[in-house]
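Continued from yesterday's entry.
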Amino acid sequence: MELEKTRSDELRSWTEEKEILEHQKELLTTEQTVLTQKMRQVQTRLSSSQTLQAELELKRQQQEKDFAVVLPRIAAAEARLLQFRDQIPQGLRESNLQAFYLLEGSERLPLTTRLSNVLKATAVMEELQKGIHRFPAIADSEDGKLKLDVIFLGLAQGFAVTPDGTMGASITLKQTEGEAPTWDWAWSEELGPKIRRFIESTDGKSAPKAETLPIEVGP
């Protein structure tokens, strides 16, 4: 199924990036530990301080080179995750945003802390992308407030339906160049019963049914 392939490819990309960052975090943490140990040795072994200081300086220079390589990757991951945060549907925001707040204004944080925060946010993103999420929502209508059941397949696409199943909507992410992405709701009377049956089949109220839902796969 094209939707599953798209979700799998995206998750694989994030998983590979996560593994790289975890490895880099491990290396940087080890280097910092070694650096701290050497500094203590300088303080306690005055007789060989010149040799130790020279070794310490070489390690400091190597760490600066490593930081120069890792920093752009971390910054790019932070930017990508913050963009992803802005795409989280309203009904899923409250319980998932904390990990992403840690990425804001991170320039003053130690590099290893930034790496840890990136990995935490990536883990949240992966869970959102893999799961099926159902939540209630309220929409404005001509008759006032309209209660809805909303279900998202990962974050690739969502569907909404009225409690009686008379109206349904396909929810897709629309990206306009130069603007922040937004969720577009396309309503249809025909979709209502299909979405209602699909939602009920996911919560055990009825036997699973193969519903034909309008899945849109992005570029």
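--- second protein ---
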Amino acid sequence: MVDEENIPPDVERAVRINWGVLIDAYLTNAARVGSRYVGTLYFDCAGLIGNGETVVTPPVRELKSHGNFYLVQSACGKDHYVIVSEGGPTHLRSV
């Protein structure tokens, strides 16, 4: 069951766009790490991950943009995600 409370307005706008493919999830505050993204997930189409949870995508490539949003596809071609917003610069350090 999708918790539709506290959905960011930008996610609601991105959901209304016809991307031409099934969207597996929408990510906010996304940060690119190599060919993957880490971000806050909304509307997991499989219903396994709750809104607001942090996830890591499989390796992806950018397909197209619509305004400030952009569509990415997994390297295997089976999954599609919309990057709704990106977080600020992330500085990672080995420990």
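Helices lie at 9-15. The longest helix spans residues 9-15. Will compare against the first tomorrow.
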